């Protein structure tokens, strides 16, 4: 068994667990802060987290040289993709329902990643990866939609969430390209710094300055530092060990955490269909893991 690839997939699963707390955290937050400001502020606080992390763990001399070697052209593209992912995801969820928006954004990401890899490398992921990914996408969609109290679908919401999935896939594959030569923390700091510089002015332009309560700020800080900063630091380290397409597919474990928290914290009682979707996600992820380990061994 390839321990290098296995450790990478474990890191993605840990990141997905943190991503899965996002919905519960937002549920506990007071209403009032616009969705695009939530997306922008989480990028801003994530960027601040990466600055502190790099300063605490790095040294002045080597850091200066590492920043010089950063491929800034790719960083700008990845930063724009991350900003687009956050802004379009929250806007798409607002235009449709949370269940529909989440299912489309999460489910389309791995499919986009597979298609982008074909375009970029002219090599398709393995058949087992496609099968596992499609099963996990179907199961995750079944879990999210099957647990929803109500569904609302709009063309604009669907389009925004598809763009969100595409942006996430593009961010992942570009980051995978960069972390082969540049430290993961440096890459993540540069990308999220650029993303915040894009997202915050857009939020300001759309709705101006906003105010929220101390509890609201606490939720935003948690989303930025833990559910985004720590999670994407783990995810970026994982990209040094596994393929970008596998990393995107393993991110489909996110609904598993959200599902468990909805039951344990919010007190929801999902229908049997949601548990069937849970089984499909686990089966699909098992196939993705098997495909990645076989590829790494070869």
Gap between N and C termini = 11 Å
| Spatial extent as radius of gyration | 18 Å
User: How much helical structure, as a percent, in the residues?
Assistant: over 70%
- Which spans have pLDDT < 50 for at least 5 consecutive residues? none
Please tell me what the overall shape is.
globular
Mean pLDDT: 84
Structure overview:
This protein has 298 residues and is mainly α. The protein has one domain (3-28, 36-297). Helices cover 82% and strands 0% of the residues. It has 13 helices and no strands. The protein has helices spanning 3-19, 22-28, 35-57, 60-69, 72-95, 98-121, 127-146, 155-178, 184-207, 214-238, 244-250, 254-266, 272-297. Helix 8 packs across helix 11 (244-250). The longest helix is centred in the C-terminal third of the chain and has 26 residues, at 272-297. It is globular, with a radius of gyration of 18 Å.
């Amino acid at each position: 068994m390839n321990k290098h690839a296995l450790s990478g997939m474990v890191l993605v699963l840990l990141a997905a667990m943190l991503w899965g707390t996002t919905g519960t955290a937002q549920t506990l937050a007071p209403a009032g802060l616009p969705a695009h400001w939530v997306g922008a502020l989480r990028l801003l606080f994530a960027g601040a987290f990466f600055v502190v992390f790099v300063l605490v763990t790095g040294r002045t001399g080597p850091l200066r040289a590492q920043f010089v070697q950063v491929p800034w052209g790719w960083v700008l593209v990845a930063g724009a993709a991350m900003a687009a992912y956050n802004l379009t995801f929250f806007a798409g969820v607002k235009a449709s329902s949370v269940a529909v928006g989440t299912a489309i954004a999460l489910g389309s990401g791995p499919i986009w990643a597979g298609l982008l890899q074909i375009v970029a490398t002219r090599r398709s992921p393995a058949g087992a990866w496609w099968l596992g990914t499609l099963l996990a996408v179907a199961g995750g969609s079944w879990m999210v939609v099957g647990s929803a109290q109500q569904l609302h679908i709009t063309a604009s919401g669907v389009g925004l969430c598809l763009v969100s999935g595409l942006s996430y896939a593009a961010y992942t594959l570009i980051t995978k390209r960069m972390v082969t030569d540049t430290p993961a923390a440096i890459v993540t700091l540069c990308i999220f710094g650029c993303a915040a510089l894009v997202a915050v002015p857009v939020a300001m332009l759309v709705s101006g300055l906003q105010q929220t309560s101390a509890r609201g700020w606490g939720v935003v800080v948690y989303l930025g530092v833990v559910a985004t900063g720590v999670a994407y630091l783990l995810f970026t380290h994982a990209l040094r060990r596994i393929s970008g397409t596998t990393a995107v597919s393993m991110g489909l474990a996110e609904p598993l955490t959200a599902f468990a928290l909805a039951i344990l914290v919010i007190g929801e009682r999902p229908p049997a269909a949601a548990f069937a979707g849970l089984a499909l996600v686990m089966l699909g992820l098992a196939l993705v893991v098997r495909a990645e380990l076989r590829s790494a061994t070869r």
